Amino acid sequence: MSTGQKEAAPRKALEQINNYITAKTIESVKRELGIDRIIKLAGNENTNGYSPKVKEAIRLSLEGLSYYPDMNCTILREKLSKLHGVEEEQLIFGNGSFELISIIAQTYLEEGDESIIAEPSFGWYKNVTWQMGAKVVSLPLKNHKVDLEIIRENITDRTKIIWICNPNNPTGTILTEKELREFLQELPSGIILVLDEAYVDYVMEEGYPDSVSLLKSYQNVILLRTFSKAYGLASFRIGYGIASKQVVLQLNKVRLPINTNALAQTAAAASLEDREFYRYVLQSNKEGLKLYYKTLTELGLEFVPSNCNFILFNTGLDGDTVTGEYYKKGILIRSGKEFGLPTWVRISIGTREENELVLETLKEILRRQA
Ligand SMILES: Cc1ncc(COP(=O)(O)O)c(C=O)c1O
């Protein structure tokens, strides 16, 4: 609609930003396709749901919702401080780790600063860098893995943040403790290293870092965790960061005073109490991955062994076409095109029944396209 008024100019820094591509919701696809059953495997959510203990805790907490939530996240803070063996002041909570990524950029990036991202990776690092008028230094992976060597070579005196997603989304690969420690030893001081560990719970490969212990020696490291994946609380919106007290003090200057809602805090705290459900989720994921490895090997398709709740593989066909074929059946997956891998797809691991259906459908698609 045009009112004839001149459009107000947004900040210059925003000119290069396209709208963030988000996965479609189940409801919107139901409406569009007129199908009742939609299987969403495009956003790496937990299709096993969340712990029954969460449901009960939420039911009991409904009374207090006309009040503002606990701005300090006291109960959750106490639990996580014990779980990780860190001081309570080393924790910061966010409306998902998405928000924490924004907070980090707002705290540290000046116009013209550089932020290093090994790509393909989680897309939000790039957006927040641009929002601040800083420069994205995009570096390639090596064999689908973050290449610390090339990162080291590209550090300049303008480098302010290095974003490392470990394990990496969308490839599922990890950096080991040894590799990270060697890198940190040579990292010039004054650079923030963000280790986004959204998928930490799913890691199976040997050598994954005890990242909390890195904080003892390196005060500019920030760890990011989320309740959206293994705990299945994606819709509640809650994640947290662990860092030195000094860093958390700075991050808190930018954070909205009330950024995590009461239900999210209650759900997160309750989910930590149910280790049985947590183990079930991890076991289900492990079995799902095993089925993918077996089937993809039989089909002769290249894949990246995953430490996450998704798998990236090469269909040998156009990734958008494959994604479109799945879509017609009400199965939502992610095309590799947006990651610069045009013949690949990324599919979240679902329940056994969902995984079997996805793989049967894959065989059908391959037969039809042959
Ligand atoms: C690597 C990574 N970091 C952060 C997030 C954001 O998670 P949330 O905001 O739900 O905590 C995601 C979501 O998929 C992710 O893949």
3D architecture notes:
The chain has helices at about 25-35, 50-60, 75-85, 95-110, 125-130, 150-155, 175-185, 210-215, 245-255, 260-270, 275-300, 320-330, 350-370; strands at about 40, 90-95, 115-120, 135-140, 160-165, 190-195, 220-225, 240, 305, 310-315, 330, 335, 345-350. It is about 40% helix and about 15% strand. The model has no long low-confidence stretch (mean pLDDT about 95). The chain has a seven-stranded mixed beta sheet with strand order 2-8-7-6-5-3-4, sandwiched between helices. The protein is built from 13 helices and 13 strands. It folds into two domains: about 15-45 and about 275-370, Aspartate Aminotransferase, domain 1 (Alpha-Beta Complex), CATH 3.90.1150.10; about 50-270, Type I PLP-dependent aspartate aminotransferase-like (Major domain) (Aspartate Aminotransferase, domain 2). The chain is of the alpha/beta class and about 375 residues long. Helix 11 (about 275-300) packs parallel to helix 13 (about 350-370). The N and C termini lie far apart (about 45 Å). The protein binds pyridoxal-5'-phosphate (PLP). Pyridoxal-5'-phosphate (PLP) binds near residues 198, 228 and 239.
Entry summary:
Helix content is 39%, strand content 15%.
Fold topology:
Elements: H1 26-33, E1 39-40, H2 52-61, H3 74-84, E2 91-94, H4 96-108, E3 114-119, H5 124-131, E4 135-140, H6 148-153, E5 159-165, H7 177-186, E6 192-196, H8 211-217, E7 221-226, E8 239-242, H9 245-254, H10 262-271, H11 275-299, E9 303-304, E10 310-314, H12 319-328, E11 331-332, E12 334-335, E13 344-348, H13 352-369
Parallel strand pairs: 1-11, 3-4, 3-5, 5-6, 6-7
Antiparallel strand pairs: 2-8, 7-8, 9-10, 10-13, 12-13
Helix pairs in contact: 2-10, 4-5, 4-9, 11-13
The structure holds pyridoxal-5'-phosphate (PLP).
Catalytic activity: L-histidinol phosphate + 2-oxoglutarate = 3-(imidazol-4-yl)-2-oxopropyl phosphate + L-glutamate
Pathway: Amino-acid biosynthesis; L-histidine biosynthesis; L-histidine from 5-phospho-alpha-D-ribose 1-diphosphate: step 7/9
Cofactor: pyridoxal 5'-phosphate
